Structures are given as structure tokens and as C-alpha cells.
Amino acid sequence: MARLPLPPASLRLLLCLFLGAFAIPNALAEKAEPFVFVPSKGEGPFPVALWLHGYRGYSPSGYFPGESAEAMQKHADALGAVIVGFPATTELGDDTQQWSEEPVADHAYVQERLRSLKTPAKLDLNRVGLFGFSQGAMVAAALATVYPENYLGAILMSPGGMSNPKGSNIKLPLHAKQVYYCFCGAAEQEGNVMLTKGYAEHFEKVLGAKVTLKLYEGVSKHTRPADFMEKFPEWMGAILKSRE
Predict the structure, then answer these.
(1) What is the model's pTM?
(2) Could you tell me the domains of the chain?
């Protein structure tokens, strides 16, 4: 799998010291409220589309600041699935968060948060699809490949992080039933492009999953695909139906 180039050792050390100085242990930190959009019709339990935000990028108003609650509710209704998002594992001390990038820790945290919402939101935790941006995309790749029994696949948008990829290299029968979408601007930073293509190749050739790869020509901004709001129900719908 392609690896995201890391900064020089001296810069990494300074970054770790900086983050460590401001990080607050999870047990002591008060987490921001999750967002939950439940389909308007049906009694549940409903499949789950889980948003994994980028570094310091959580917004309780929705997975992309500026998108209306009405638009997100429309997605939930179109999918017949609950759309859920919550802040990442590690508080940074200024009301922002980052993922640990350790699959065991991130998976345990995600599962705990989903279980807390299972009854009030009528979640079917056997049908969970992931979608993530930047660091969240990298975490989505790790969780879905290491724990295919818990996640049906993922949408990865411009993956990137502070460590090397930690996805699984061991092919399991459930990997063949997973669905992945890997997106990035064709002119984004080299590391983001390399990871996007590397993940797509790994999912398909090593794990045997169904993969769609698209690099958006002429796009250099580190952002979601321009057609995301239009295509999201189609993409996530394919993931959530992958084992039917």
C-alpha cells in the first residue's frame, strides 16, 4: 500500500510534543454532542452511515459545515439509514479532536459511542458503513479492513494522517463482500493522491473487495468531491446493501 510521506524526524518530534502538551485524556474531556439524523419513515432498526471527520474537523451541525439539516435529513430518508457523527477519540484542549490512528483504540471508541445510540436512534449495528475525510478517511480504511465483521465498507475522501496506514493485509472472506469508494482531487498534495490510489489498489488486489476509484481532474483543494451531496445516497446505499 502507498504510504503518506512523513515530515522530518525533528518536525515530527515537535508536533508530538505540541499535541501532547494540549491533549486532554478522554476520561476527563467533555465530548461535543453527536449529530444523529433518523429516517422519517420506518420503525427500524436502521442501518448506519457513520461519519469520521478530519483532523480538528468535527461539526455537531453535520458532516460538512454549511450544509443544512434539511439536506442531511434528505440523505437519511433517501438511504433509509441513520446518519451519525461524533467527535474523534482524542481531545486537543481547544474543543477540537483528532483520531488516535490506532485501530484497536478507535474501533473500541466508535463501538462504544454507537452502542450508546443504539436504542434511542434504533440502530442496526450489524449494518454500518463508514465515510470519512482526510484523517477520518484513513481511520475508516483501517477500521473497515481490520474489522470487516463490523463495517460493510467505506467512502474515503482525500485520505491523510500523521502515521503510516494501519489497515489489514490479511484477506478474510468478508472482505470480498465489502464495497469501497476512494476519491481525491487529482492535483491535491502528492501524499493524499498516493494514499487514495494505494488504498484502492490494496482493497481490490489484496483484500478482494469491490472498489471504485476516482481522481477529480483539475481539483487541488483538500476538500470533499464536488458531487458528494448528489452522489452520497448512491455510494452509501451500495455499501449498506453489500451483504444482501
Answers:
(1) 0.87
(2) 35-241 (3.40.50.1820)
